Request: fold
Amino acid sequence: MRRMLKSPWPEAIIMILVTLLTYVSLATIGVVVKAPEGGMATGTVVGWIFGFFLLSLIIAFLAVLGGIGGGVMFTPVMLAFTPVDSLIIRGTGLIVAMFSGLISTGPFMRSGLSNLRVSVFLACSFAIGAFTGAQGAILVAGHMGDTGEGLVRLSLGIILFCLALYFIFGGKKIEWPQVQKSDKLTELLQLRQPFYEPSLARTVDYGLRRAAWGFLAIAGVGLLSGFFGLGAGWAIVPAQNLVMGIPLKVAAANSGVLLGMGDCIAVWPYIMIGAIIPIFAAPWLVGQVIGGLLGAVLLIRVKAGFVRYLLIGFMLFSCWGLVTRGFSKLELIQPVPHWLTGIVFLVIFTWVIHRVLKMVREKE
Amino acid sequence: MNEDRPIMPKAQIYYGECVYYLTIVACLVCIVGPLIAMIDPENNVMNPYFTFAAIFQGHSADEVWTLVAGGFPGGHFWYGNFFTGDGFTQFGLALGCSSAAYALIVAAVVYALERIYLYTFFSLFVAAMIFFAASGVVSF
Reply:
């Protein structure tokens, strides 16, 4: 009982109760009130609001566990299966990406799994990249064709594929990178911060390296995040892990904090042109916050290996989407049918589940 | 066991708590906002029945606002429409989307008090970028 009085339970219970009351009231409105002539049926409007919330809840849970922004799942799904305008989807995609990050910030900061110094340092470059990317997206949507977008997606897909391969064959040294020697700038920035790792039952004091290269890499990631409205956890995590030598689990937690911080900048150009429509975006936001809160509590207890395979799965699936859409935009292939994307998704995540089960059996 | 655990820096704890509770307030506002819009759809910036119809017909953002509200009233339209469903929800969105800026100011103050000026500067820089983006000064 005493445990229920400690964060996050009181706020989680309040949010769940308010959500229940709101959706019961909305359901009542859906039954009682008639829609005005020419408008959508009341039940359909309420159904969309509730459906968005539910879907967002599921995405948030998976996103925090994978250490990526939910936008990377939301944006491709919405672009593939709905007729909604791409700028509205990309703007709402940033809301999805940033709020799962924002709500997980508190637990990650308390536990020390995330490092504020690394996050703020990298946010300086992410901020510039994300703002420029978001303005670029608005500019492209208004003035340019599909060719530029196609080329960017294609090259991004290839980079992501290479990173996924490196994660698969890189082995354990990526989960806990061994940094033998640091450089002067990284030492000067004093980025090191030990944290208690419950799965190892000891304090981990990790070394860091190549802060300048990490800074540059994150600027590029911010540019892509702002431009595509995807969130960019899938690229922030490897950029920190491979370039700066940050342990995978810390990189995943930092990625949530960084997305929450950086996408606060990327999202505003979309808000200022009306691409974020309040009643459309709100249920997605609510699902991310409630799902993100529960996901963050879970992630602190999940071992790094599981997160690694989940990330590889998401990276490979994102890669598939980027490459096929890139070729499609360049008119080199026809748009890929949804059933084929579904099969690819199934194949990739069957492999992920197989790897996780194998890992669990080996540990037992 | 607890004695072995490292103590987290104050700026980190304050930043985390500020962002966390501001996000929860923003979320609560965004839970209630659509309900207000559905209870009184006429007293709203955009009638939700027509908004969803326009969105799912594939109209661009600009077209949706023009069709349903007669034009986009600006990103901070919640100032003058706080007690409408849309205005209240937009307030929640604006609060959530600038929560990191307020938290970074708190973190910057803590860093400054601890004489860690480099991170005071980094925190203020990112906060300034958020306010700059929210001002809408630069737009193409």
About this structure: The longest strand of chain A covers residues 195-197. The radius of gyration of chain A is 21 Å. Chain A has one domain: 2-363. Residues 105 and 294 of chain A are 12 Å apart (CA to CA).
